[in-house]
Fold:
Amino acid sequence: MRVLHVAAEMFPFVKTGGLADVVAALPAAQRAAGLDARVVLPGYPAILDALRRSRKVHDGGALFGAARVTLRQGVLADSELPVYVIDAPYLYSREGGPYQDAAGREWRDNLQRFALLGWYGSHLAAGDADTRWQPQLLHCHDWHAALACTMLRLHPPRSSRTVFTVHNLAYQGRFDLGDFPLLGLPARCLDGLDGIEFHGQLSFMKAGLVDADVISTVSPTYAREITTAEFGCGLEGVLRSRADDLHGILNGVDPAVWNPATDPHIVSRYDAAHLDDKAPCKAFIQQQMGLSVRSDAPLFAVVSRLSQQKGLDLLLEALPALLAAGGQLVLLGSGDAALEGAFREAARAHPTAVGVQVGYDEAMAHRFIAGADVILLPSRFEPCGLTQLYGLRYGTLPLVRRVGGLADTVDASTGFSFDAADATSLRGAVQHAVAAWRDRPRWLSMQQTAMERDHSWSAAAAAYTELYRSCSLKG
Ligand code: ADP
Ligand code: GLC
Structure:
């Protein structure tokens, strides 16, 4: 089966979160399973720099405000995964992130930048952007890719089916209604329950939800949650109307990147049979972050975007209890300035027990996850979450709020969880974790159970293949 993924980021070249990890690992797992999976990506500088063995496959001319757009096909450095890269310097060639400038402001032309991504997704699917290859299945990820589903619907006859995967409903790609003419879509796409208008704005997310043949999200629990007002971000009605087409498939772990037995970033490698070799990873992190190097203090870690989603304000409230129970905390993250400041302040107040590194650092993320005893995710909502899966694999037991993918991947034999999004519940779970950690045989057995859990991508890839088959059979 030929599958084209349409996405705005891909590890290790461009990454703001778990989406990038998925877009790197899922197509690779699909190829290993015999599918012909490819990816189309915007030509940001980091992607163009990594592009190898490329040929021009399409000349798009002037599109979405860019004077000259071309499509190249090749592979990215150290990868054999075929990729299509949209070369549009006016839209993509700039310093800063994929969605924001270096100061954290959204790019003003994100509507055009991601309309172009959707345009190429749909034209590749329709067979007129690469005459040598046409996907049977177009797999669009998050709002950035959603317009491909809408645009493909306008291209009869349709030989490709579309799957739209929601990685995070909170980011919707909403733009001024007055910019609709910039999309080049017929007026009928705008209005009505299945139009892309949403509460007086354009919503790319809604376009994907109404126009894809099938919708998926990244855990079964989140698939249920987003049909409710509490988690639906206003789109719960749209999602309920498509309940029969909404599926939840858990993400996996890429063993080439996250494996404590081979990880090049950590000071001591280990596996489930040699957990003593994890101890130097802990001492290293304690020392690196200026904490007292104590094997008798349970070390909690956070590796996260600092956003409202992640519930880290609850952790600030619960921190005195964590410290009173004898615990230490290390945090690696960036985002919300107030949270960054508050965690820095906590580190200043407790220099031997709290260590904070503000920023994004791939190698340190591996060292934190290998070195800690517990990885914390007190999220308000969590579509899937990858860091708890990395924690399981590294014998670093997750402490999570029981929502979304966290509820589906962590149980009492592999970690700790709490229900209410408040500091009291988090405190209770922290105390529970500390008590379990002090019971060495129990802890060791939990670590071994966690490390043996299978969260490989092959299971997820097989579930997606089933989903693709089901939507190919649909009318
Ligand atoms: P989300 O996509 O909501 O941020 P996930 O748990 O799915 O959450 O994925 C987060 C990914 O980003 C993981 O690969 C995690 O290791 C990584 N990550 C998050 N914050 C940082 C950071 N400050 N430095 C390095 N990696 C980070
Ligand atoms: C989103 C979600 C996260 C999920 C990731 C990859 O960023 O916040 O829970 O793991 O996408 O699917």
Observations:
- Residues 17-18, 21, 303-305, 332-334, 360-362, 365, 384-387 surround adenosine-5'-diphosphate (ligand 1) (CB under 6 Å).
- Residues 110-126 form the longest helix (17 residues).
- The two ends are 18 Å apart (CA to CA).
